[in-house]
From TrEMBL:
Residues 107-122 have a biased composition (Low complexity). Residues 1-34, 70-122 are annotated as: Disordered. Coiled coil: none annotated. It comes from Micromonospora purpureochromogenes. Residues 72-85 have a biased composition (Polar residues). This is Histidine kinase-, DNA gyrase B-, and HSP90-like ATPase.
Length: 122
């Protein structure tokens, strides 16, 4: 769960956001909702579910439910060992899930800009 302590969302805005998270429109994000749309598409890609609700201290809480196939159980000793290891050392394999696209978990090459900042200002 991720929470913020901001002003929160109205009941109507919360319902609209949850509808978008549950069923993102195929034609792209509604105006001002690109972040929610991206979260919905990423969740759908890996079989996760994302929803919003009022936070316990105000603000909004985002709840993300992951499929069991994406979670690797650890013991406290494993968690401590993994936080102290060097990057790349003893990396765990990316879990597979029969419903996932084949590229999930594979690092894409870095994006390169197609225009320069000067071209963007035109």
């Amino acid at each position: 769960m991720v929470t913020d302590d901001g002003p929160g969302l109205s009941v109507t805005d919360l319902a609209e956001a949850n509808e978008l998270l549950a069923d993102p429109p195929p034609g792209g994000p509604p105006v001002g909702r690109a972040g929610l749309h991206a979260a919905a598409l990423l969740a759908a890609r890996c079989g996760a579910q994302v929803s919003l609700r009022p936070g316990s201290r105000g603000g909004t809480a985002a709840v993300v439910l992951l499929p069991a196939g994406l979670v690797t159980p650890t013991t406290p000793q494993q968690a401590t060992a993994s936080s102290t290891r060097e990057p790349g050392e003893n990396e765990l394999p990316v879990p597979t899930h029969s419903g996932l696209p084949p590229r999930l978990g594979v690092a894409d090459p870095p994006l390169t800009p197609t225009t320069t900042a000067a071209e963007d200002d035109r």
